[in-house]
Amino acid sequence: MSRLEIVLICVSFFSTCLNIGLVVYLRSALSRLLSFSDEMGDLRDMTGAFSDHVSSVYSLEAFYGDETLQSLMQHANSYKEQLDTFEYIYDLSNEKEIIDERDPEEEASEEDQE
User: Is the pLDDT reported for residue 44 higher than 90?
Assistant: First the structure.
């Protein structure tokens, strides 16, 4: 083997190792991102439920007009609106769920149409 062949083998070996390492890292990073997206979606849903609950309590005759509940309701609504600005993060996990939930028959019919 010539010196050039040895250098090329070493470079290709290191390149292959680097590519495998990058693939493993990217899979891990995407997994964490999708997990974070799911958790953020759950937080948004919980905040929406809390906001609806405070609104329903505030609308009761016994509490209607209570300034503390009114400010709590406004705070919950503004918090929910702020969480809605991160909708692009929630959509990451929603797209994955939509892809996972598709029927194999639908996929086969789409492939037949192409």
Answer: no
